[in-house]
Fold each of these.
Amino acid sequence: MVSVDNNRCHLYAICQQEAPSSFLLAEDHRLYYDAAPPSHQMASVRQAARLCPMQAITLENGGR
Ligand code: SF4
């Protein structure tokens, strides 16, 4: 499971660059994300979580 802390997220969109199938920074300036990405997306989701400057992305259960 993936969750994003909206209080931390400053919409840098790095997550979208790293995992465009799982994160979408929309025109309304909100971040939409897939809370349960398919397993083949998890490597890029993990990378997004690592690179998020605000450490706003949390992977539960090791991201499985
Ligand atoms: S990289 Fe982090 S701070 Fe930036 S939009 Fe994604 S979750 Fe938010």
Note: The mean pLDDT is 94.
Amino acid sequence: MSDHLKKIYSLYAYVYDTLFGKIFEHGRCTALKMMDIEPHDTILEVGIGTGLSLPLYPKGISIIGIDLSEEMLLRAKTKKMKYTLNNVHLSTMDASLLAFRNNTFDKVIASHVITVVPEPIHTLNEIKRVCKKEGDIFILNYAGIDNQFISRFEKIISPIRDKLGLGKHFDLDLLLKEASLPVMSKQQVNIFNACQIIKCRNNTSSEA
Ligand SMILES: C[S@@+](CC[C@H](N)C(=O)[O-])C[C@H]1O[C@@H](n2cnc3c(N)ncnc32)[C@H](O)[C@@H]1O
């Protein structure tokens, strides 16, 4: 499945910013505001893709961005150079197997990623592990349009979306409960309020 996603995103990389840049910009900007980043914060962005969020971070903040797709990361690296973001470090990595020590980051964000990865619970558990106790975890996702017919249609086409690497339909609240991640706040964003940002608090500490 990871190989399939890698292949798909090596193609999306060419058109990703054109297709998903402007349309999801409001969500990204709101998420960054919600993160309320302090100068000393260490940030992990999981599935950073082409780095559309990079110019939105306050300058000088230490950010690590990881992604499965080298082609997507290549675009992120171009943005890092363009905006001279010397404190940004980008690595190819699988979100379900993060190469970081326990309790490393103050804040972790996964934007349009949790519904894409094959085993979201593994990814959430990894995010929890590398996030410090009392650190914040932000999940930005397409959540669906509040209309009975559209939502029924979305459930039907969910397997196709999943195959195309564009995320699948599932109950994110249930998943967060399963991962024991308490929700602190939620905000609807983007056109038709179709996406939501969920802020969770990591109330567990992994052994150092
Ligand atoms: C829909 S894009 C979102 C990109 C970016 N976060 C954004 O908001 O524009 C999903 C990203 O997740 C990455 N991805 C998918 N599975 C992954 C995994 N297991 N580990 C790390 N990244 C993954 C893809 O390569 C892709 O860049």
Note: The first strand starts at residue 42 and ends at 46.
